[in-house]
Specification:
The complex is a heterodimer of chains A (about 325) and B (about 325).
Chain A: E1 4-19, E2 24-40, E3 44-48, H1 55-62, E4 70-75, E5 78-79, H2 85-91, E6 95-98, H3 112-122, H4 128-141, H5 158-170, E7 176-180, H6 188-205, E8 208-213, H7 216-222, E9 225-230, E10 233-239, H8 240-245, H9 250-258, E11 308-309, E12 315-316, H10 319-322
Parallel strand pairs in A: 3-8, 3-9, 6-7, 7-8
Antiparallel strand pairs in A: 1-2, 1-4, 4-5, 9-10, 10-12, 11-12
Chain B: E1 6-17, E2 20-32, E3 37-41, H1 48-55, E4 64-73, E5 76-77, H2 83-89, E6 94-97, H3 101-104, H4 111-122, H5 127-140, H6 146-149, H7 159-171, E7 177-181, H8 189-206, E8 209-214, H9 217-223, E9 226-231, E10 234-240, H10 241-246, H11 251-258, H12 298-302, E11 308-311, E12 314-316, H13 322-328
Parallel strand pairs in B: 3-8, 3-9, 6-7, 7-8
Antiparallel strand pairs in B: 1-2, 1-4, 4-5, 9-10, 10-12, 11-12
């Protein structure tokens, strides 16, 4: 097993809720509520969950694009939550992000050339010729041609823009890329092109991905290990095969059963969850899922279950498995 | 076989823009049988939504216009109807739910108010009776606190709830056809499962025909009896759900099905269709899929193939199945 590239310990992000004339803080939205995991070098680590579960906030907190409220993030053994903003800026050379929306994450006033050149300038590659060479290589690596360099983002389709976003993230040869729903906004036939591209790049540049998505079949295809989030907490982490074959947490089970299969012959036992996800401003006491859990017990509404190894590196936060 | 309840014949809806005339729907033939769920699949820009909007004459005009073709609802041609006649059809005989329920509900009125308005538009009922019916409908679509939800505003509800309200509103007048345009795209999987379950129940219990427009092949496999695949303004293949998933004929359908990752199998690499969807224009020649097709032939670039029946109910628009096409002619 290879060493962890990234370790996240007790990461928290609370957004204050302010009300009234004096903007008094009346409560907190616990977007990310005490989560821990580690990502190994060279793997693709999936973060899945429904909207509002805190998966994107987690991704951004790791890069400190938003400041975490608590906890530690270690990158190659180096504590990065304590770094000054200047040190952090340098650190981001190794940690990049690809956003979901290829329409709003590229500056419409800049040509592709400038979009790709900017990170190189910021990180001190002052030789113009070298920058040109790197950009020319980048644009080819992501499957576009040098003629595209002088165009502007609006002249590209969604899939092409996503390729530009990926090229920008690659510009500084990072070690880790946080891909926040990189294919969700794309059409099916374009989606598979971009997924294949991400996999090729990973093999070529030995990248580590944190792949944030809500589409469970895409995650199954691309990831090595997967963490399932619910209301700001991780409820289960396991190797992909274990998680999809023998999901343990009742939420994971329901989530997997809810995915429609593109095959009319597959008849699934569907667990239809009642109700909706509670507000993260007012998360239930104990296990966050107990209000919708078909297997809820008395203890679930009282004690928050810990994420425990149930064997073979399969971690589950559920009282059903804690006793055994 | 029953006569189709909704029949679209050679429909052409074009948009007249500064860049010229854009044939968004370019000769579409479709039919929906009573009590069936028809899936219309395709990627963005293939014309699936414009087709459904044309059925209710909701295409913004200008720039959009139904140029030719007919839409028969129970034998009556909708395209020939005036606005007053259309109002009797919309919501009453054919109703529609949209992808984003927030934009299709009026934020200024309570949920109850909007449902009551729909009912009283089509039925002679007192406000009180209409409200009672609205309440019953909200309960029927599985809204838990229907008594209080009825007096709430759309922004107070979650996405799944709003979609339920939309469905409640669209079925109050017991329509014969429900057009669902990407009804679950904006929702999470567990909520999507709830909504699909609801639509299926309505279809089975009331025999309401559903035209389901989506890009999600999983939803199609799960919900639909028949499927029409659209590409660049045209239907390229049509057949039973088993035909389409198990014996797809058109290279586009084949590519589409292969490019979706599946939960029950592991593949090292996904198939991907090269290139992008073509930009629609009036002077397109040949098969619309030709430049992305793995089995393209010289003929494909010259002439557009017809949508020809290959076996019972399974039709395909492709020169690869040319022999039978010539037989048919």
């Amino acid at each position: 097993m290879s060493e962890p590239l990234l370790e996240v310990e007790h990461l928290k992000k609370y957004f204050p809720i302010r009300k009234g004339l004096w903007n008094k803080t009346v409560g907190h939205v616990k977007a990310v509520d005490d989560i821990s995991f580690s990502v190994r070098r060279g793997e693709t680590f999936g973060l899945v969950g429904e909207s509002g579960c805190g998966k994107s906030t987690t991704g951004r907190s790791i890069l400190r694009l938003i400041e975490p409220s608590g906890g530690k993030v270690r990158f190659e053994g180096r504590e990065i939550t304590e770094l000054s903003s200047e040190e952090m800026r340098k650190q981001r050379r190794d940690m990049q992000i690809v956003f979901q929306d290829p329409f709003s994450s590229l500056d419409p006033r800049h040509s592709v050339q400038r979009i790709l050149e900017e990170p190189l300038i910021v990180h001190g590659i002052s030789n113009r010729k070298e920058r040109q060479q790197r950009i020319a290589k980048l644009i080819e690596v992501v499957g576009l041609t040098p003629t595209h360099l002088h165009r502007y983002p609006h002249q590209f389709s969604g899939g092409q823009r996503q390729r530009i976003g990926i090229a920008r993230a690659l510009a500084l040869q990072p070690k880790l890329i946080v891909a926040d729903e990189p294919v969700s906004a794309l059409d099916v036939s374009i989606q598979s092109q971009v997924i294949n591209l991400l996999q090729d790049l990973q093999a070529e540049f030995k990248l580590t991905y944190i792949f944030i998505a809500h589409d469970l079949s895409v995650v199954k295809h691309i990831c090595d290990r997967v963490a399932v989030m619910y209301l700001g907490r991780i409820v289960e982490i396991a190797d992909k095969q274990l998680l999809y074959d023998t999901p343990q947490h009742p939420y994971t089970q329901a989530l997997l059963s809810a995915v429609p299969e593109p095959d009319p012959d597959v008849k699934k036992e569907r667990i239809i969850l009642q109700g909706e996800v509670p507000s993260p401003a007012n998360a239930p006491v104990g296990c966050a899922f107990h209000t919708r859990c078909p297997k809820a017990m008395k203890i679930c509404s009282e004690v928050r279950p810990q994420l425990l190894d149930t064997g073979g590196g399969h971690l589950t936060a559920c009282h059903l498995y804690a006793t055994s | 076989m029953d006569k189709p309840i909704l029949e679209i014949k050679d429909l052409r809806t074009h948009f007249f823009t500064e860049r010229g005339e854009i044939p968004a729907v370019d000769g579409v033939d479709l039919h929906v049988n009573p009590g069936e769920v028809l899936g219309v699949v395709g990627e963005s820009g293939c014309g699936k939504s414009v087709t459904s909007l044309s059925v209710l004459k909701l295409v913004p005009s200008p720039p959009g216009k139904i140029v030719s073709g007919s839409i028969l609802f129970q034998g009556q041609d909708i395209t020939a109807m005036n606005e007053r006649e259309m109002c009797k059809i919309r919501g009453n005989c054919i109703s529609m739910i949209f992808q984003e329920p927030m934009t299709s509900l009026n934020p200024l009125f309570t949920v109850g108010h909007q449902i009551v308005e729909t009912i009283r538009e089509h039925r002679k009922m007192s406000k009180k009776e209409a409200r009672a019916l609205a309440l019953e409908m909200l309960k029927k679509v599985g809204i838990a606190r229907a008594e209080s939800i009825i007096d709430e505003y759309p922004h107070q509800l979650s996405g799944g709830m709003r979609q339920r309200v939309m469905i409640a509103m669209s079925i109050t007048c017991n329509p014969d056809v429900l057009i669902a345009d990407e009804p679950t795209t904006a929702l999470d999987v567990t909520i999507q499962a709830q909504i699909l379950d609801l639509i299926r129940r309505l279809n089975e219990e009331r025999g309401m025909a559903v035209m389901m427009i989506t890009h999600d092949l999983g939803v199609v496999a799960e919900m639909c009896h028949r499927v029409a695949v659209m590409y660049a303004g045209k239907v390229v293949e049509e057949g039973s759900v088993r035909d389409i998933f198990k014996r797809p004929l058109h290279p586009y359908t084949q590519g589409l099905i292969q490019s979706v990752p599946r939960m029950n199998e592991t593949r090292a690499r996904l198939y991907s269709i090269p290139g992008n969807v073509p930009i629609l224009s009036k002077n397109m020649q040949g098969c619309r899929f030709a430049d992305r097709c793995p089995s393209v032939m010289p003929k494909c670039l010259e002439a557009l193939p017809n949508l020809v029946e290959q076996e019972s109910g399974h039709r395909c628009r492709c020169w690869l199945h040319e022999n039978r096409q010539e037989d048919a002619v």
